Amino acid sequence: DAGITQSPRHKVTETGTPVTLRCHQTENHRYMYWYRQDPGHGLRLIHYSYGVKDTDKGEVSDGYSVSRSKTEDFLLTLESATSSQTSVYFCAISESGSISGANVLTFGAGSRLTVL
Amino acid sequence: SQKIEQNSEALNIQEGKTATLTCNYTNYSPAYLQWYRQDPGRGPVFLLLIRENEKEKRKERLKVTFDTTLKQSLFHITASQPADSATYLCALAEGFQKLVFGTGTRLLVSP
What we know:
Structural class of chain A: mainly beta
Oligomer: heterodimer
Number of helices of chain A: 0
Low-confidence stretches of chain B: none
Order of helices and strands of chain B: EEEEEEEEEEE
Distance between the termini of chain B: 40 Å
Low-confidence stretches of chain A: none
Distance between the termini of chain A: 29 Å
Helix content of chain B: under 10%
Number of strands of chain B: 11
Number of strands of chain A: 11
Mean pLDDT of chain A: 92
Shape of chain B: globular
Largest interface: A-B, 28 and 26 residues
Radius of gyration of chain A: 13 Å
């Protein structure tokens, strides 16, 4: 997990409260991703970023928003947490995203979120 | 969107044997396919990448094959060790920046 840190690593919150997860990288990689991992579903892409202030939706973006004001930080916000958002959230970074390259991801250690 | 199928049942093998994991996909053949390893409580770690024009890729005891006709990749670990016990994820490129992951197959190597 060197070069990428997630915080907090564990969080318990109540339904309806806002939650922000932070991903910080020291690799200066252009691409950053937020995935969630649930039993039976595997890793599913929530949002990703291809540069500062450049973000796009993934497969399961409803209920989530992201922001990237600096290259090194990618924030995931749950405006009003629901029990269905209980999950393990992984941030990932990548240097290359071009069609000629290959998108090899480096993952953080994960943030376990429980919404009661 | 791409659908990926990996055997959800755990694969149990004895130390020293070859483990073979399967990844099947349903739609278009991706430009490349990747395999990751995930240990409990940790994030996935990249192992190998194979491109659509490659039939086979090797790295130490690991071998990956890619058959675009069958829409399948096989992941082999030869001379398996208990330390190889983990969940192995298959991932396919979707578009320029996205990777789609399978649910993973858990491998258990017993001494």
